[in-house]
Design brief:
By secondary structure, this protein is an all-alpha fold. Helix content is 76%, strand content 1%. It has a domain of 204 residues.
Length: 311
């Protein structure tokens, strides 16, 4: 193993050991709280893979979370599959949907892409609401207890860790440099030989897979899904704000943002149950105003952290 990869490999092993220990020892409340945190880490890191590195801000990333949840649930309930095969089906469905959507929406730029993705997410939500014979419509789908809460936490925790590793691999690769070049100047990148459309589509598909698995894990965790709770625009907003807080286009930025905002949300819910949403909203507004570039980039700019793509 190359010496430069040894710290990263040790960090991954330490993260895996921590997940296993937490899943084995934590109380049911801490398992539920931990599930929320790793859900935010997975979704923020997956959103960052495409939007943070290419600059194509998606307002509809929750569509991959939702399609993963519905695919896994239908494969389990109607297809009789166990949770491993159903979860794999969720990841595959998210990847295929990303490939189809990406071939259409990634031809757009700026606000047009953002609105197109928002529209795509709403279209899938409406389809899930109206196709009652398949999805149960507004009544949703009740799932059998295929995976315990601890098992669902561990599945999602490993997915979060895998998404971080994937982001690290992208950041260190030529592919990652191509994505950053697209973010800075897509026309210039194409002039230098970057296959922009292919790179954007690949990043889009890569970002969809963890989100699809997260949707499946959430379905196993709560044993019920419906259109309103599975395609919430608020979840996409949280992904964006968490990535902004930590720093988009970095490896650990979405992780830092998800941890800080996830823990803050849990604290506000526990201490101020009647006004926690308002306080959480004020916190988000403060982040957008005072730390628009993100914590990690600010610390790098001030010399507190080294300027490196490894972070």
């Amino acid at each position: 193993m190359k010496e430069s990869l040894l710290p990263a490999a040790l960090a991954v092993l330490a993260g895996l050991a921590a997940l296993l220990a937490y899943a084995a020892l934590a109380s049911p409340y801490l398992i539920a709280a931990g599930f929320t945190i790793v859900l935010f880490v997975t979704l923020s890191a997956s959103w960052n893979l495409v939007s943070g590195y290419t600059g194509y801000v998606s307002f509809g990333h929750v569509v991959f979370f939702g399609i993963g949840a519905y695919t896994a649930s239908l494969l389990a309930v109607k297809g009789g599959l166990g949770w491993p095969a159903a979860t794999l089906g969720a990841a595959s469905a998210a990847a295929v949907l990303a490939l189809v959507l990406g071939s259409i929406t990634l031809r757009l730029k700026g606000a047009y892409f953002a609105i197109a993705m928002l529209g795509a997410s709403e279209a899938v939500r409406v389809a899930a609401s109206t196709w009652e014979s398949l999805t149960g419509g507004g009544s949703g789908i009740t799932l059998p207890n295929l995976l315990s809460p601890r098992g669902a936490f561990l599945l999602l925790g490993i997915t979060a860790l895998g998404t971080i590793v994937l982001t690290y691999a992208v950041a260190q690769s030529r592919f990652g440099l191509h994505l950053l070049a697209i973010r800075e100047d897509e026309t210039g990148a194409e002039a230098m030989g970057v296959a922009a459309t292919r790179a954007k589509t690949a990043a889009f598909v890569l970002s969809a897979v963890p989100a699809g698995i997260a949707g499946a894990a959430n379905a196993w965790h709560i044993n019920y899904i419906d259109p309103e709770s599975t395609f919430p625009i608020l979840l996409t907003i949280q992904m964006i704000v968490m990535t902004m807080l930590g720093g988009g286009g970095t490896v650990l930025g979405p992780v830092v943002g998800a941890l800080l905002l996830g823990l803050a949300g849990e604290f506000l819910w526990a201490r101020f149950p009647f006004i926690h949403l308002g306080l959480y909203g004020l916190l988000i507004v403060g982040i957008v105003i005072f730390i628009p570039e993100g914590l990690l980039p600010r610390l790098m700019a001030r010399g507190i952290l080294p300027r490196t793509r490894r972070l």
